[in-house]
Design goal:
The protein is built from seven helices and eleven strands. By secondary structure, the chain is of the alpha+beta class. It has a single domain, classed as Phosphatase 2c, domain 1. The strands form two sheets. Strands 2, 3, 4, 5, 6 and 9 form a six-stranded antiparallel β-sheet that branches. Strands 1-11-10-7-8 form a five-stranded antiparallel β-sheet. It is globular, with a radius of gyration of 18 Å. The relative contact order is 0.20.
Length: 262
């Protein structure tokens, strides 16, 4: 799988507290994509997101999937992801207790693993994962935020949520407590057909709609990937970050894209 990512400080922040990672792993049979958006005191959010990415990725990459039956694969990946999240949460939580300047720090986490056509999505917080094909674009993660709770409870609509005053309040994060609860979703890429993946922080999703994502990837699909295989992805990432900054750039912006084919 080809991938390309970039992180931008935005128009108003001095420190970039986002972190991301992408790597083909397990003998090139799988791809790991991760985005984290940190929060906390002076540079603490940066520490939290970096610690989460490093810890989560180290544990996943160093532990290849050994199962063969699809149900066993899903269960094994579920265990690996849960264990990696637990380890990242413990490290961040212990740092926040040890150092006063890091007290209360935490981070969102959204991760995708593609393994032999199976897509696994894990998320905590409001960083997002989208899948985009010529037919449709859909968010596969589910926000853990106060505004999403209001949407799920039919108190406000998605349209009203765009301007809701507490839209950035999240209800789950890695490292803010002794335990962290992660949501894990599975999808068969064969049912989607060829397309793109996007993982991003809310500094992007607050400014870019699913329609915008679809239009950008449709334009990108007409670009020759070039000798490195990523020209279309680089175009999409540049478009996403530019759109977020042009929209206000109030937060750090991270876009991590990947192109898959079945």
């Amino acid at each position: 799988m080809f991938y390309y990512g970039q992180s931008d400080v935005g128009m108003h922040r001095k420190i970039n507290e986002d972190s991301y990672w992408a790597e083909n792993m397990w003998g090139q049979e799988a791809t790991l994509l991760v985005v984290c958006d940190g929060m906390g005191g002076h540079k603490a959010g940066e520490v939290a997101s970096r610690t989460a990415v490093e810890t989560f990725c180290d544990m996943i990459i160093s532990s290849p999937c050994l199962s063969y039956k699809i149900d066993d694969v899903k269960e094994e990946l579920r265990r690996k992801i849960s264990a990696a999240v637990k380890e990242a949460n413990t490290k961040i939580y212990n740092l926040s207790k040890k150092y006063t300047e890091m007290s209360g720090m935490g981070t969102t986490l959204v991760a995708a693993i593609e393994y032999k056509g199976l897509l696994v999505v894990a998320n905590i917080g409001d960083s997002r994962m989208y899948i985009s094909t010529p037919a449709k674009t859909l968010q596969l993660s589910h926000d853990h935020s106060y505004v999403q709770h209001l949407i799920d409870s039919n108190i406000i609509t998605k349209e009203e949520a765009k301007s809701y005053p507490r839209k950035n309040v999240i209800t789950r994060a890695v490292g803010i407590g002794p335990q962290a609860e992660v949501d894990i979703f599975f999808s068969d890429l064969k049912t989607w057909g060829n397309g793109y993946l996007l993982l991003c922080s809310d500094g992007l999703s607050n400014y870019v709609s699913e329609k915008d994502i679809s239009n950008t990837f449709n334009r990108a699909s007409k670009i020759d990937p070039g000798p490195h295989g990523t020209a279309d992805l680089e175009f999409a990432v540049h478009e996403f970050i530019t759109a977020a900054n042009n929209g206000g750039g109030a937060d750090n912006i991270t876009a991590l894209t990947a192109r898959y084919s079945i």
